[in-house]
Amino acid sequence: MTPSERTDTLSEQEQSTASHQNYRRSLGTISLTAVGLGSIIGSGWLFGAERAARLAGPASILAWVIGAAVALTIALTYSELGSMFPKAGGMVRYGQYSHGSLAGYLAAWANWIAIVSVIPGEATASVQYMSSWHFAWAKGLYEGKELTVSGVALASVLLVGYFVLNWFAITLFAKTNTAITVFKVVVPTLTAGALLFAHFDTAHFTDHGGFAPNGWSAVFTAVAVSGIVWAFNGFQSPLNLAAEANNPGKSLPKAVIGSILIALVIYVALQVAFIGAIPAADLSKGWSGLGYTSPLADLSIAWGLNWLAMLLYADAFISPSGTGMIYAATTSRMIHGVQENGHLPRIFGKVDARTGIPRPALVLNLVVAFLFLAVFRGWGSLAEIVSVATVISYITGPVAVMALRRLAPDLPRPVRLRAMPVVAPVAMVFGSLVLYWARWPLTGKVILLMAAGLPIWAWYELRKPWAELRPHLRAGAWMVGYLFVMAAVSWAGSTDFGGQGYLPEGWDLLIVAALALAFYYWGVASAWANPSLAEVRRELDAEAVPAEQAPESREPSRV
Questions:
Q1: How far apart, in whole angstroms, are the C-alpha atoms of residue 39 and residue 235?
Q2: Quick check: helix, strand or coil at residue 274?
Q3: How many CB atoms lie within 10 A of CB 298?
Q4: 270 in Cβ contact with 433 (< 8 Å)
Q5: Could you tell me the CA-to-CA distances from 166 to 21, 24, 333, 424 in Å, in that order?
Q6: Mind listing the pLDDT tens digit for each residue in 310-327?
Q7: Per residue in 340-353, pLDDT tens?
Q8: Hey, what long-range contacts does 70-73 have (CB within 8 A, 24 or more apart)?
């Protein structure tokens, strides 16, 4: 390496360090829990109960429990990783640390696609609820399955609003989000209680085909595509804001796990209330015949709860907008992380020194959000894409957490679960099953979308010498193989999950679980001490020295 190359490398490292120093460590446990809960309770609670009931009937209640169990096991693996590496955009980094550029990039791409597409989804949800207003202009915002041109225009205005609130300072974001989250918790709780009190028909839980009218395969599909995975995916928002946590070792796991459990109680209560409150006439065509535009508001009007309908119309702006605002914040940190992984231009790693906001990354995500809004104009279509991409991004957590225990046992782990050797493979199996439950051809379409990001990786990586590139390819082969094999299994699977029927019912789930475990152990074994891991080690060591010299500087601040 020439002296000029060493100078350039040093300059990049210094710039990276400076960018991270520009973040404000001002988020405590309450603020981070509000971030997680605010992400989980977004548009999912406005539409999820109806979509889940349409697929699974009363058994949709169990779909929410299954979804929470999947999210919780996966969240446990990421909580350890987040406490180890409290860096901006944490979710896009862990695969890079354990397996190098190929696996790291695929995981980051899947995660970013899953999160950035939520932002237009939240705007779409708000506008779709507005279309139920009794005004001619409101009726013209939505036509059956997607927004009209005027609906897209209004959703675009909301997108700009989400990003404006993130432009100025993290403390403004935290205070605004905490207030919104309180409202977002109160209104769903009040809605469930009001509907239960207004009308509760217990016959709905046994009539119209029984508790599981479409079989258990429909329950599993509801987990994957009805918005349940979409909702619980919000657990990762605190992890992506880890660089702004004032005590990440304690606050991150509390925020992640606490937000999932609180949201589960709220979502189950809403699902029970929704099932009991449906007018009997609306079930004349069975559960699949449900077709509400604004589900909870429509039920409120049906039982004379006009005040609740008005509150829901207002919350249809507040809940999705709060979630959209959070995801605008977290996706900008994810872009920063992808840039530091070496797969985006340097400008997207810049953090404004005065506000602590990665503004160029915000702008990029706003542009991408507009593109998603233009292509996917309905909440349902976005929810399906987000859910499957989310599950694909999940699989690196269980593999990375155990791989790093093997590669870097000496690194500090503020959160260390003794049962992780069991939890991690179980999380891998759960994630793979949810991917399979999403049904062919949706699984194939989203896996193809994952491949669409590879040209960006190739632009940055294929120019490297073969000797340097080869270990990254070898370590990432398990993930490429996983995507191809899961697509093939989904295509060949049982007809219950959209497949060709080559795999008999029951055996297909066992095959998916066995393949998940095989790829899990392959992934853990293929991890290697790559340059990204070495670099983050140096960064952690550099941060530890000032902390020992001036422990008072590590005192947590309050928002």
A1: 7
A2: helix
A3: 18
A4: no
A5: 18, 14, 11, 34
A6: 888 888 777 777 777 777
A7: 778 788 888 787 77
A8: 70/223, 70/229, 70/232, 70/427, 70/430, 70/431, 70/434, 71/229, 71/232, 71/233, 71/235, 71/260, 72/257, 72/260, 72/261, 73/423, 73/426, 73/427, 73/430
Alpha-carbon distance 82 to 256, whole Å?
Answer: 10
Helices (H) then strands (E): counts for the chain: 25, 2
How many CA atoms does the CB half-sphere of 221 hold within 13 Å? 24
Q: How far is CA 269 from CA 1, 48, 62, 191, in A?
A: 62, 12, 12, 9
Measured CA to CA, the distance from residue 45 to residue 87 in angstroms comes to 30
What's the half-sphere exposure (Cβ side, CA atoms, 13 Å) at 554? 12
Each residue's pLDDT tens digit, 214-238: 898 999 999 988 888 878 877 877 7
- Helix crossing, 101-116 with 379-394: angle to 10°? 150
Q: Which residue type is seen at 97? A: Y
Residues for the chain: how many in total?
559
Tell me the C-alpha distance between 330 and 147, whole Å: 26
Identity of residue 525: A
CA distance 476 to 117: 25
Q: Which residues pair with 147 in a beta bridge?
A: 142
CA 545 to chain centre: 34
Question: Cα(491)–Cα(506) distance, rounded to whole angstroms?
Answer: 16
pLDDT averaged over the chain? 83
Residue 460: how many other CB atoms lie within 10 Å: 15
pTM here is: 0.80
The pLDDT, as a whole number, for residue 523 is 96
Write out 374-418 in H/E/C secondary structure: HHCCCHHHHHHHHHHHHHHHHCHHHHHHHHHHHHCCCCCCCCCCC
- What type of residue is 251? S
- Among candidate residues 390, 432, 449, the one with its CA nearest the CA of residue 39: 390
Confirm if 49 and 208 have CB atoms less than 8 A apart: no
Q: Where are the alpha helices (DSSP H) in 199-294?
A: 216-225, 228-232, 237-240, 248-277
| pLDDT of the residue at 479 | 93
CB atoms within 10 A of CB 150: 14
According to the model, what pLDDT value does residue 90 have? 63
The pLDDT-based confidence of 97 (bands split at 50, 70, 90) is very high
Query: Does the domain made of 26-434 have the CATH classification 1.20.58.760?
Result: no
- Tokens (6 digits) for 22: 């520009």
Please state the φ and ψ torsions of residue 155, each to the nearest 5 degrees. Answer: -60, -35
Of these ranges, 21-30, 152-161, 354-363, the one predicted with the greatest mean pLDDT is 152-161
**Which residues fall within 8 angstroms of residue 330, CB to CB, at 6 or more apart?**
39, 89, 115, 236, 237, 240, 241
DSSP code string of 141-180: TEETTEE-HHHHHHHHHHHHHHHHHTSS-HHHHHHHHHHH
| Domain assignments of the chain as residue spans, ordered by start | 26-434
- Determine the Cα–Cα distance for residues 247 and 449; give it in Å rounded to an integer: 37
